[in-house]
Structures are given as structure tokens and as C-alpha cells.
Amino acid sequence: MNTEKNVTLVLYTSQRTRYILLGLITLAVAWWWGSKSPLPQDLSYHNFADQRRILAITNGLDVLSNLAFLIVGIWGLVIVLNKEGQERRFLDPMEKISYLVFFAGTTLVSVGSAYYHLSPNNGTLVWDRLPMTIGFVAFFISVIMERISIKVGLLALMPALIIGAATVFYWSWTESQGRGDLRPYAFVQSYPIFAVAAMMVLFPARYTGSINLLLVLVFYILAKQLESNDEAIFAGTGGIVSGHTLKHLSAAIAIGWFVRMVKNRGPIHRPGSGHVD
User: Fold this and answer.
1) Longest dimension (CA), the chain
2) Nearest alpha carbon to residue 199 among 139, 254, 259
3) What Cα–Cα distance (Å) separates residue 89 from each residue in 146, 165, 209, 263?
4) Which residue from 21, 42, 22, 10 is spatially nearest to 204, judged by alpha carbons?
5) Is the Cβ–Cβ distance between 194 and 23 less than 8 Å?
6) Is the pLDDT confidence value at 217 over 80?
7) Among 13, 21, 152, 175, which one has the highest count of C-beta atoms within 10 angstroms of its own C-beta?
8) Among 23-32, 97-106, 161-170, 263-272, which is the least confidently predicted range?
């Protein structure tokens, strides 16, 4: 068994205190979004800066940059399904389930996002956001399974996926009723960032290299900033590339780094780690 010491951020408090702190973070994020008024989709969101056609493809770079998700998604699936090194990457074969869902969701993002960018509107946006929720949820559950409990993660996976999908359909339905509300979807998108960061501080890792999750989160946050500055980046680069195209690439790098982490990791021998399995 790999006894290599791993950099850790764990705050050594009682297990009860850790769960209370994680619960408080959950309530805080839920309260933040719940305290806001209903958030309809801003229709100007669909008006992306780079609308150039490439090879007869509308919004060419925003569409074609989704190939990055296809590449890292398939790479992740290959790593998880490859039998060589599995006993090192997964102490329990059941852990692979959340990773398979995550990388399958990533692969589907390449399709859903490309479909949306061919004709950006609220209707096509549903098929962009739906696979993204699969990714957010499965990523979150994979960290629960490593840091807290495999059993809890397995039990939570399907309900969490259903809830995630429901937030997308709820938003779409409220838009059709003329009172769009993105708040539940925004919670599903933002909560895993805070929860994963908290779990890294509160609960010990089972595998080496888990510190790389910080870089995954950094690239994802960068992707959100690039998305918010779509037009400014397009203008700043002289019309070479837009913020939204770079958002796709940054998010794909985050996932690729996650794949790399899983590929290279091994178990940490830590007697009495406190995991509930």
C-alpha cells in the first residue's frame, strides 16, 4: 500500500464539529440564494460576442471549443474503465460509479453545449445546462465518497442527480410561465464549490494528490470569470477569441486536471482515518 505522505489541509476537529460546519455551509449557501428574488434568464446572455462562422458553423469557436469537453470526458472514462492500476485508484470498486457519471456527463456537455451555441435561446439552453448539472452533482458526490463515506455517496447520488435535473426543468418551466427563476439551478451550480473546499479542510483524503482539487476549483472559477467578461475579452484580444470560448477551455482544463489527479493517485495509509463506510 502507498504510504507516501500527502499535503493536507484538514482541520483536526471532532467529527461531529466537522459535520456541523459542513451543514452550516450548506444552509448558508441555500439561504443566500433563497433570500434573493426570483432570477429570470437575462436574454442578453444569448448574445455572445464572437458570432463568426467557421466552416459554415454558426458561432464557430463557441461551438467547436466544446470538443475539449469531449476529449477530457472520454479520457476520464478510459482511465476509470482501464483495469490496469484500478486497485491503486479505487480502494472500493463502487467508488468508480460517481466518476463514470461525472465523465459521462462531461462528454454529454460537449454535445449539449455545442447544440446550444448553434442556436442560443432558452429552449436549447436546457440541453446545455442538463448535462452540466450531472457533472456538478457527480463531482460533489465523488468527493463525499472519498472524504466522508462511500455508502453515503452511493445513497445520495441518484437523488442528487434527480434534484439537479429538476432545477433545470423548473427553471425552463418558470420561464414558460413568464416568471423565470434560476435560483435552484444557481444553488446546484455554486454549492459544490463551497462544499468541496470545505470537505478538503474538514475531512482527510483517502488518496494522494487530492490537493490538486484546489487547482480544479481555481480553473472552474476562472471559467466563470471568463464567461462574465465575454465581450470585453473579445474586444481586448482584437476579435481573436472571446471570453466564452476561453470559458469552455478553462473548464475543460479543470476537468482534465481532475482526470490527471485520478490517473496518478494512490491510497494513503492512514490508520483510523475516521471514514464512515
Assistant:
1) 60
2) 139
3) 11, 29, 11, 7
4) 10
5) no
6) yes
7) 175
8) 263-272
